[in-house]
Amino acid sequence: MAPALTSNSFRIAPGGGRRRLCSTREHKSLKTVTAQARQNPFSFGKPQGDASSEEEAKGEGSANKANRFFIDFGKIPDAKSLVPVVTSPSTTLFASTRRKDPRTVFVAGATGQAGARISWALLRQGFSVRAGVPDLPSAQDLARVVSTYKIISPEESKRLNAVESSFSDAESIAKAIGLATKVVVTVGAAENGPSAEVTTDDALEVVRAAQLAGVGHVAVVYNSGPGGFSGQSTYNVLDGISSFFSNLFARSQPLTLGEFLSKVAELNVSYTLIKAAFTEDYSDESSYGLVVSEEGSTAGTASEFKVSKSQIAKLVADVFSDTSIAENKVVEVSTSPSATSKPTQELFGAIPEDGRRKAYAEAVAKAKAAEEAMRAAAKATDAEEAAKKLEEEVKKLSEKKARATSLNKEAQRRVVEAGSSLDSLFIKAKGLGNDFSWDKLSSQVTAAVSQINNNDTEDTEEKKARTQIATVRGLAKARNLPSKKAVVKKPPQKPKPKQPDPTPEVKNIFGGLFKQETIYIDDD
Predict the structure, then answer these.
(1) Which of 79, 116, 287, 349 lies most in the core, judged by the most C-beta atoms within 10 Å?
(2) Considering only CA atoms, which of 156, 160, 153 is closest in space to residue 38?
(3) Is 393 a residue whose pLDDT tops 80?
(4) Neighbouring-strand partners of residue 219
(5) Residues 110, 88: contact at Cβ < 8 Å?
(6) Distances (CA, A) of 449 to 443, 454, 500, 501, 522
(7) Per the record, where are the segments of Basic residues compositional bias (predicted)?
(8) Mean pLDDT highest for which of 96-110, 298-312, 436-450?
(9) Among candidates 297, 300, 329, which has minimal Cα distance to 315?
(10) Residues 6+ apart with CB under 8 A from 168
(11) Where in the chain are the domains?
(12) Looking at domain 78-353, which of 3.30.830.10, 3.40.50.720, 3.65.10.10, 3.40.470.10 is its CATH number?
């Protein structure tokens, strides 16, 4: 945001309470100027009866005739003695809670050629004017002129409030607008003071400031004639060369009228653009009737005449008296000797509304509809993707559920099988428990031991029988052998060592319920 600027303001002092402005000699020399100023307050002639002025006029000859409207500001006293400067900031939109005044108009560039005349015309029709000036000295010059030449009455001076305002940024202009509900700006040369011009870029800043300040209506006056806005060609060869080099070395190109209107149509403020070729108030065209036509209808026609600045000022004041007749309209104003005087309502009533704002509104509506459609399509796409993801999740969950069901059935089957095995084991164990008897077990053990002993006895007897058979056979063979004397040395017999009693081996059987003793007998 642009830095906030404080706009100083002051009010023109009424004529009744002022100090004496000039000496008696100066007062006599200004009588004729005052009379002419009352007839046409913005076209001043030289004072009559001034000897120095008459000698100067004789010396200048024809050059003086070409410039008959001249004000000698050197004879006017210091303007600081005329205007009480207020050092406190003016009432602005950002610092005041006061309500907007529907009868207050802000004039941007009030020290310009057309801006000064528009300010005076508004005061004549009862409006309060906030005159925007580039600096305080310019405001003092304005106060000096209107006070000295009595351009406005003391009552009108009470409704004229000069405020410091430049075209630098919209926020500072909005502060200068203050309580005004209507704004007017003139695009053209010598409209930002006596030497500087107001461009379309400057005018666009004023319109933006009007939107910030809550202004209801903005009037833009566009000087399309020679000497007007430098961006407008006069179809002159020298002018074309000058414009070429000006544009070549310029930092940035100002907006064309079409571009300016397109940007104004985008803002939320009603507007009226008045396009005309300005001329001086003393020209012949100033007595012709006004012709208000639609944009582009009179371009290049031979019957088009220029419009004086005072006529434009009167037209703007009439528009502000009833802005409903000129809302969002672009008109071209000219004069014609055959044109009759008509009220402003009739002049603007036949002009259709500018199509730019409607086209912009339709474009915005289409853009919003397209954006909504894109959002809806994006939401539909997101919903479709979400549905696909949900379907995949449901499928996965179904597969997991089926797998869990299968595992559950397998577990149930195994549980049933395990239950059957346990039942059979329980039955077997129960059967074993029913058939078990200590006496039976003891008899079985005894029979087993007897069987083992019988087997050992049979083996011993068989061995003895075999030994006897072998002995008998040996004796038979020995009888058949020839008799020989044999010496048989009997080895000494060693006494057999007494063997220790065998230690029985004890084992636990049937889970420790019984003990089995096993005795090993040496056959030797």
Answers:
(1) 116
(2) 153
(3) yes
(4) 184, 272
(5) no
(6) 10, 9, 22, 19, 17
(7) 486-497
(8) 96-110
(9) 329
(10) 2, 5, 205
(11) 19-72, 78-353, 354-442
(12) 3.40.50.720
